[in-house]
Every structure is written in C-alpha cells, then in structure tokens.
Structure to design on (407 residues):
C-alpha cells in the first residue's frame, strides 16, 4: 500500500505488461564491508559496498546481507517507470471508467464474500470499513491477481542508487535486508517498480512497522496471505489517522449561484456551513453535522462534486495523486451500494502541451507549480484558482482554454 508522501507507482491494472530487463547483469558484485557509502549515482559496485557497510552498522547478519546483495543489478526498466506515470494525466471520470470498468465491482463483491471474516476483523480492530479495504485491494493488485513483476531487490537498489530520491529508498533497502534476514523476503520476491510488495502493496519499512500476522503463522507475508495483507493495510490506515465510523467522500449537488472559489482541499468548513450555502447530498445521505469537510471538484464546476472528509485526507497519505485517491474513494462508495456518480458535462482537459504551456505561464507569474510535467497537481490547481480569481473567471481550479488564452 502506498502509504507514504510521494506518488510512486500504479499497478499495471489498466494494461499489465512484463517488465523489460537489461540484457546483462552485474553478476556477483562484491559485498565487502566498505567504510563509507556512495550517496547516489557513481559505480554500482561501490554503492553496494556502502549498503553492506551500513547494514553491518545496523546489526544485520553478514550472511543475510551477502545473500541479499549477491547478484544485484540496476534495472533500467525501473528508472523508465519512475520517469513515466503519464496515466495520471487522465481526468477523474475517464480514469475511473478505465480503472473500474465493468468487472471491478463484481470482483469486489465476490472478494468481500470470500473474505468476510477477515474484513470484519479489520473493521473491528482498525475501524476501516470493508468497502474501503476492498477498493484498495482491488486497485492495488486486482485482489492479488497482479502484484507486479519487477524484482523487488533490484528495484529498491536501483532507486536508492539513482540520484532522484536516494534519501527515500536507501532506508527501504535497509528494511528489506532486515525482512530478508527474518526469512520473510526472498531474493526472488517481485512487486511494483517502486519496491512495494504484496496484495496491498506496502514498502519494506511499512511492513516492518505496521505489518500484521493476520493468519497467525509467525510471518507477515503480504504476497500470499490475504489475512496478512488486509490486516496490515487496515493497521496502516489507522496509523495515518483513519477515524472509525466517519465518511470519506459524499457526492453532493450545488446551487447554480455557488461561489466556486470555496472549493479545494485547502478550504475545510463545518458541514453545517456547507449546508447553509446550499450544498446537499445527491441522494438520501444525511450529512454529519459535527464534522468538517472540503468541497472537491475533480473536474471543475461542470463535473462531479464531493464533500471530502478527514478520512479522505488519510487516503492522500496512501497516495498523493488526487485523481487516483478520488477514484479509489469513489469506488469504495460504489462497493458500499452508492449509485454511479453524476458525471455532468465538464470542460475537456487541456492537452499535454497546453498544460505544460499553462504551467510555464503560471510559473512565470510567480506561482509554485512544481515540475512542468503537464499533470494537474495540487500546486497547479492552486495557481489556476488564484489566476481565475484575478481574471474574474469562475474559480473552480479547473483550467480551461479561456484561462490559457488570457494568460
């Protein structure tokens, strides 16, 4: 489960493919315990020496470290995947249709029946409802059927050696060596390109800290045990602040004269205040008056509208892609019996080139938009809303061609 502050990977649920592999390996690299580590880049063999030295300092058995590192080699397919992730440019409705399709909901219902007892344990112990756990399980690995085909050892070492985020992945390598020493992570383990493992895709550090032996066999094995995976996932969500018995996402309808600048995850307000402004549940649901929520317009004022509660923010600790998390949270409501979302008629998403041009213009105006990657992330959304307000446009954070032309 991707419960960490950077978006790393989306399992190949849309179009699973076998990872490309380099034609030659760094076979049997030396694992002598060197006194210092290479921070990033440089000679891969020297990097492995540094990893071995650090593992020794942390008290890991030399036999386990040698076993883990012998035969390790950088995987160029991992670096390619790390630079990719264009799938997250899709708008919410299109992304949801692709990822949910016609089969995901029936599969979730079948998985819910087959694992009813474990899901009940998760809810009783961690407060995470069955529909949310089924949504995560379904989105991460299609209920365990596709858990990734990248060698976990090589993926983690590749990313720890790479200079983009070594400070994030080097600790994951250390945690993986400890799991290997415990007998819970064979060198042959495969998973996602960013090193996540098992049915709910957790990183080694998370497994060490939050993994649960759900089937009481003395091991935490997220690849083969649904009980371990679901209990561990529930434990992680509780750790990040999941509140039992509270909603995460409720579809709402808005008056035509609504002040769109109030939308966005930055604007939490009491539900009673939203109700006073004319925000109402689309069907039947009574909004919890005691809670606060933000108004989420994933495709602007002409698309679907949701109130996003604190539990939704917990899901953003799992994965920082707003589109991915919104889709997963919405799918959980479908699993729980909600009707399909009211799609509306949102304006088309800008093309990749147009979005990049918009980001450059926003950046030139002094806005922090992050990388010029064509993805409508949180920084770009905030900048769009500020410019919409300045130019007298409806400030719904959804960039249209009118804004691009005015800028």
């Amino acid at each position: 489960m991707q419960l960490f502050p950077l978006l790393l990977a989306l399992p190949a649920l849309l179009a699973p493919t076998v990872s490309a592999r380099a034609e030659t390996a760094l076979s049997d690299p030396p694992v002598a315990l060197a006194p210092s580590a290479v921070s990033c880049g440089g000679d891969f063999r020297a990097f492995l020496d540094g990893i071995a030295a650090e593992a020794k300092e942390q008290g890991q058995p030399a036999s386990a470290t040698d076993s883990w590192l012998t035969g390790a080699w950088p995987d160029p397919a991992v670096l390619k995947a790390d630079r990719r992730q264009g799938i997250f440019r899709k708008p919410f409705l299109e992304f949801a249709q692709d990822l949910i399709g016609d089969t995901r909901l029936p599969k979730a219902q079948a998985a819910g029946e087959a694992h009813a007892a474990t899901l009940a344990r998760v809810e009783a112990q961690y407060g995470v409802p069955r529909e949310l756990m089924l949504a995560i399980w379904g989105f991460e690995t299609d209920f365990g059927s596709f858990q990734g085909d990248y060698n976990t050892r090589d993926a983690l070492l590749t990313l720890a050696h790479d200079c983009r985020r070594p400070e994030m992945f080097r600790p994951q390598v250390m945690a993986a060596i400890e799991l290997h020493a415990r007998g819970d992570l064979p060198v042959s383990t495969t998973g996602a390109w960013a090193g996540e493992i098992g049915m709910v895709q957790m990183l080694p550090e998370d497994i060490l800290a939050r993994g649960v032996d759900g089937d009481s066999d003395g091991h935490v094995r997220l690849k083969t045990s649904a009980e371990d995976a679901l209990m561990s996932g529930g434990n992680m969500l509780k750790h990040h602040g999941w509140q039992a018995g509270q909603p995460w996402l409720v579809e709402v309808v808005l008056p035509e004269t609504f002040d769109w600048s109030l939308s966005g995850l930055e604007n939490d307000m009491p539900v009673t205040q939203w109700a006073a402004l004319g925000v109402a549940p689309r069907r039947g649901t009574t909004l919890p008056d005691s809670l606060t929520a933000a108004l989420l317009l994933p495709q602007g004022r002409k698309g679907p509208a949701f109130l996003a509660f604190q539990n939704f923010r917990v899901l953003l600790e799992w994965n920082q892609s707003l589109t991915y998390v919104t889709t997963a949270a919405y799918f959980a409501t479908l699993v729980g019996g909600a009707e399909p979302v009211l799609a509306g008629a949102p304006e088309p998403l800008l093309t990749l080139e147009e979005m990049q041009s918009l980001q450059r213009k926003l950046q030139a105006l002094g806005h922090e938009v992050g990388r010029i990657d064509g993805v409508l992330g949180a920084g770009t959304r905030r900048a769009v809303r500020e410019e919409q307000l300045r130019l007298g446009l409806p400030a719904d954070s959804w960039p249209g061609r009118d804004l691009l032309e005015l800028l």
About this structure: Confidence is low (pLDDT under 50) at residues 2-9, 11-38. The beta strands are 150-151, 190-191, 249-253, 269-270, 280-281, 292-296, 306-308. DSSP finds 17 helices and seven strands in the chain.
